[in-house]
Amino acid sequence: MTTPRSAGGPRHRIHTVLAAALGLMLGAGLVTAAGAQPAAAPAEARSALRVCMDPNNLPFSSVDGQGIENRIAEIFGRALGLPVTYYTFPNRMAFIRNTLRYKLPGADYPCDVVLGVPVGFDQVAVTRPYYRSTHAMVFAPGRAGLDGVRTPEDLLALPPATLKALRIGVYDRSPASQWLVRHGLVDNGVPYNMLSPDPQQYPGEIIERDLVAGRIDLAIVWGPIGGYFAHRVKEPQLRVLPMASEPGVKLDFEMAMGVRHGERDWKQQIEGLIDSRRGEIEAVLRDYQVPLLPLSAPLAQARP
User: Fold this and answer.
1) Fewer Cβ within 10 Å of end Cβ, the chain: N or C?
2) Quick one: which of 154, 133, 62 has its CA closest to 286?
3) Where are the alpha helices (DSSP H) in the chain?
4) Quick one: DSSP state of residue 124?
5) Cα separation of 207 and 224, whole Å?
6) CATH numeric code, 5-131+252-287
7) Whether the Cβ atoms of residue 152 and residue 243 lie closer than 8 Å to each other
8) Count of Cβ atoms closer than 10 Å to residue 24 Cβ
């Protein structure tokens, strides 16, 4: 794990912590009028929109500003009239402690918002959600007898010999692992370490490296990862099948942003941006091939 460092610039973050949070713990914020503009006074008190970011976490974030969260941060920065700066740290279990809640010796916190935390994540004050997605199957239809698979139910209906032979890549302790257990496919699972100590590991390796090379026949991953990396692979052509939650296995989650507990005004301001820039946010998500589901009705207010 590297030492936290700063990265600036207007163009300059989730899989491991997200997956751990979803796997291990498996609130929207205060509601304002739809389309409301953020209050001006808090924005004027800030010199920059300071974002906590993983530098190597596509499709969510990257040090060169090519991730979903980088794009959304730019939208928010323009709306606030502020430059966007980043404080980077590999997204592992200690990510929040080493970014959002890390107070520099004799100075202030280095960043003020995390873009991309699951609703219900209690290490931060969670805003209202800005998108909802689900886990997805990713595979090459021309391999392993998967030509006719167009829904998860089709997969389960494959001939027993074909189904038994499948090698299914999943991140350990994730909802995908639970899905394998529920359907009696544990022996098919090829586990991947969710919390690798290697800061260069990135979420899409399971697709770009092992699925493409034929080391596994199918991967079950968080939808934004599946959509983005399947679209990036040109050969073989890959199919992405969003999955629905089942009794005892929750596969879809609403994603929000996080600020420090007690920063009520800042949280409300971020929520105002989520509301007023919702169309732009959705356009970014679609650009990155994120499988989107409708957001649920507003939930109870999260703890400020």
Assistant:
1) N
2) 133
3) 15-25, 40-44, 68-80, 152-156, 160-165, 175-182, 205, 212-213, 223-232, 264-276, 278-287
4) S
5) 12
6) 3.40.190.10
7) yes
8) 11
CATH of domain 133-242: 3.40.190.10
Phi, psi of 2 (to 5 degrees): -90, 165
19-56 confidence digits (pLDDT tens): 444 443 332 222 222 333 333 334 447 999 999 999 98
Q: Do domains 5-131+252-287 and 133-242 have the same CATH topology?
A: yes
Q: How many residues does the chain have?
A: 304
Where exactly are the structural domains of the chain? 5-131+252-287, 133-242
95-121 pLDDT, tens digit per residue, is: 999 999 998 887 789 999 999 999 999
DSSP 206: I
- The tens digit of pLDDT for each residue in 192-245 reads 987 666 666 777 889 999 999 999 999 999 999 999 999 999 999 999 999 999
Q: List C-alpha distances in Å: 121 to 21, 37, 64, 217.
A: 7, 26, 27, 32
Q: What is the pTM of this model?
A: 0.83
Q: Could you give the dihedral angle defined by the CA atoms of residues 193, 118, 120 and 182, in that order, rounded to the nearest 10 degrees?
A: -50
- 114 vs 69: CA distance, rounded Å: 9
Q: Token pair for residue 251?
A: 């596969």
